[in-house]
Amino acid sequence: MTLVLTASVLESLTNMSETIAAVERGFGDIARGTAVQPGPVSLHLPTSEARHLLMAGLAEAQQLASVKLLSDIPDNHALGLPTQRSSILLADRRTGETLALLDGRIPTRTRTAAASAVASKYLARPDSSTLGLVGAGALAIAHVEAMLHVLPIEKVVVWSRSATTLAAFKAKTAHHAVQVEIASNIQHVLEAADILCTLTPSVEPLVKGDWFRPGMHINAVGARPRPTHREIDSEGMRRARVFVDSLATAKEKSGDLMMAVSEGAMTVEDIQGELGPVITQDIPGRMNADDITLFNSVGIGMLDLAIGRLLYDTAVLHGLGIDVDMAR
Prior knowledge:
By secondary structure, this protein is of the alpha/beta class.
């Protein structure tokens, strides 16, 4: 039987603490060689701006093979439709049975925030107490929750172009014991932040490396999965010690990285490494308190697999979802 899990069911099953632990283990498993993380396949036609990405993973600990189909369709905005849609398929790696089909929106948002939290745990200064957010949507709300699990965050400084989005952000984070300050501009966010998370679907860079301060950690998260879209300018990438979730994926999907390379600010060899070996202590992360560290988060299939295992097991435990006999 295949368990179908809709967005509303997945929302009720999400647990950030458990997701952070699953994501951290997933990164470590890649580094240890007990999980396989191939590069993504990006499909597009010259007649459309749409891209369709296949993001796969295979893992021994979770006993799963998985694939997510992510459709990134900017033209949907004019139609009042989501510009990104995705579905995640989980299969038993031993038998090949399709165990589950999950709507991708909630798992992607949650595991993305969890990945930023794991990166911050290992790369940020442990006394980091001010979180800066460029962007205030649902992903920003998830990032506040995630960061509170790993660092002593006392204050959040947030910027958005939309007053409505900022009001919703304040309302949905009011239950957290943190001070929220609305920034008048992006530079103000960087002047205040110990940790910065960029969470916008930007095409042109919003964040300038000239604004980076010694000791900062940056999670570059929001740009669309295209090598020509970015949030961080080339100077920012040059100044930081850059880590990625997957080198093969970053070279295919990261405009933050590849545009800095194309402009001559850095080379691919300047990347310090992937996050997994930092977790397993095979490569160093932050070297000193003045390091500027940057995690270029482009999204990998192994994280979909990790949260997929967690959500599937929880749904089975509570008898949730819809069973479908796909073999009939």
